[in-house]
């Protein structure tokens, strides 16, 4: 994600030119004809000598540059306009460049991902943010990745040394605060359906020491996962209003998960643990209770989830708790969505499709446990 005139399209053109020289098949798509013009002009300029010498051939009509004599599945660069994702159907590539992705239709992945099936490859999503739409969700997915499948970069208009600094400064002063943050600084602004606000004001970097909280009421929230989902543990001091630890892991056996939770609980002298009981949660909780841990199950339902999430949202608004400044957890909070049923008018909460909400749920459970500890009440779920 990058600010306006920061060099996104130029960078994609350089990348495409390199890939063609490596024998790759490149497909570039932008949402408007004007956007694709800029890329096409850059590619033509880069290869003008090769085209003049007959080393490459160029079609202005189809906007294709390719070596002469190649078959229809050979290496090439092709430029297409794709405000409507269906305009890309019928082609394939092993280097796909989606420019100004935030302005494309959200279903573009349904069309372009199968294009990699022929020979594998890479997709680059680039653009300037447009609030927290599908481009933001993609960025969150990239930042949360632990497999090495994704990379993510962020730079602002100020990072481009070729722009006129005085003009950029003058323009920046004329923009609204939101306009400057989004268009120049490439920040994702809150969009419709946002659940959690005031997040940045509630973050901290403090290195908590267990001994300082020994006499305090320390609680934990736990959300379980194993394969594609993550198990998350949030430890909060109910007296200080401070998140002391946040752990997130997946693809480990439930026996090790219990051991990890137990070690964290003993380290921070946790007095109350509120753990999600859905699915595999119940047998794990029963094992933990047999081990003597103070675990209370929480069954997440369409009725119990809204007040759980809304309580966390209120805690953020009031700055009741300072949460650890963890990039993945912060982005999960920022991406979390609220939808309202047209039939019933009821609100439902979830992470966008393809994203995780494990740290959100763990923190919401820890916040619930914190409130119960502070109020000295006992709840039965």
Give unreliable regions as ranges: 376-381
Give the number of DSSP strands.
15
Write the CATH fold name of the largest domain: Rossmann fold
Shape: elongated
- Please name the CATH architecture of the largest domain: 3-Layer(aba) Sandwich
Mean pLDDT: 84
Q: What is the number of independent domains?
A: 2
* CATH homologous superfamily descriptor of the largest domain: P-loop containing nucleotide triphosphate hydrolases
Strand percent estimate: 15-25%
The helix-and-strand class reads alpha/beta
**What is the level 1 CATH name of the largest domain?**
Alpha Beta
Helix content: 25-40%
The side-by-side strand order for the widest beta sheet comes to: 2-3-4-1-5-6
Radius of gyration: 25 Å
Count of DSSP H/I helices: 12
SSE sequence, one letter per element: HEHHEEEEHEHHHEEEEHEHEHEHEEH
Largest sheet: 6 strands, mixed
- Please report the distance between the alpha carbons of the first and last residues: 43 Å
